[in-house]
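Sharing in case it's useful to others searching the archive later.

Someone asked me privately for the predicted structure of Multidrug-efflux transporter, so I'm posting the question and my answer publicly. Question first, with the sequence:
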Amino acid sequence: MSSLSKERWKTVRAEMRALWVLAWPVLIGQLANVGMGVADVAMTGHVGAEDLAAVSLGASVWTMTLVSVIGIMMAVNAVIAHEMGGGRTARVPHVVRQAAWLGLLTAIVACAALNLSTLVFDHLSLDAAVQRKAEMFVHVISVGMPPFAAYRALYGYSASLHHTKPLMFISLGGLGFNVFVNWLLVYGNAGFPRLGAVGCAVSTGLCMWLMLGAMVAWIARSGNYRSTYPFTHWEKPNWKEISSTLRMGLPIGITYFAEVSAFASVALLVARFGVVTVSAHQIALNFASLVFMVPMSVGIALITRVGHALGEGDAVRGRLVAWVGVGMAVAFAVLSASAIALFPDLIAAAYTSDRAVQEMTVHLLLLAALFQLSDATQVSASSAIRGYKVTRPPMFIHLASFWGIAIPLGCILGLAPSWLPFSPAEPLSATGFWIGLVIGLTVAAVLLVWFLQKLSTEFIRRSAA
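And my answer, the predicted structure tokens:
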């Protein structure tokens, strides 16, 4: 190996270490956040079918709203990373304060949308008791949206300063708090009222306020934030600054909503094929979602690392960081895809003892193995692009891939409508929808990789000029 190749490999390894140092605490935090939803469903399931159904319905609406807010507030990561990379630390406190105003504005809209979304339940032919509990769940849990939006502003601030461990500890603390308060309110332990599904909503709403308070306290007490401390004085909204960040964040929010709503739509569309198909689909999707947390965490770290490099004016290093991150995500996807393809029976058996569900799950998990490669590629490439403070092209690519390709193709293959001359003779049910998702995600991955290459080359050309 030549000395130049050795030096380049040394640089790549150093960047891999730097990305992983940022990514692993984010990964633990993301798993803790997912764990809150799992705990809500698992603990409510022991109360009764009505409460479980109410939580499932309410949580689906809450999750779609939540990920949209996460996407909008993710623009804060890129803005602060560029400021820090450019050595403009004096501007960071101002950016954080304006991000808090953006969080408040986003939370108001999200709360209104969340509460209005309960009107959809009127058209789902639900049992009256289930509908009443689901509506109450949504109304109560909406009080957690304002602190969550503010928390995501501080989340982006901390991550962009390369401080991701606080996010991990706070998320783990939130998970523990959520489970304990669920135990008190869902079951009515220690003298508290037995609230069932509504107890989950109260627990999650309180948890959002706790996590915000913990984040504020951590920033106030840690010396790591001293040079950019944002809580020194009151600052009125700067609408030019807020609108600039919103223009960057709104496409990310739409992208996240498009992806989550696509998967939610598939879950509704396969419901007509019976309990076995629905159960197998949910198991395969749940396992794929857990594994997806790794490339997603690498993607969040990529926004910071790419943003810092570009803020320093180093477009060449920005491209290197971007491709190292994509390579890490794809390498993990190869490992996870191999594990899923080799051990689908063990994975299915860990979720259910029903033989029919196991067989269907094994079949879908083989498609999930393919799913890993395209999903890891698209999330890492789109995150790297956001590090360039470019968000609209990924939005259009995701909308076209999910709602222009994946869902229509899934409907054709899964439902086999008779009015289409090129539909298959028999519906492929959940398999058809998963094939559609694999193809849609693959198209997204290819287009995003192409756009990342084009964008990074353009930045290098501008930098050289």
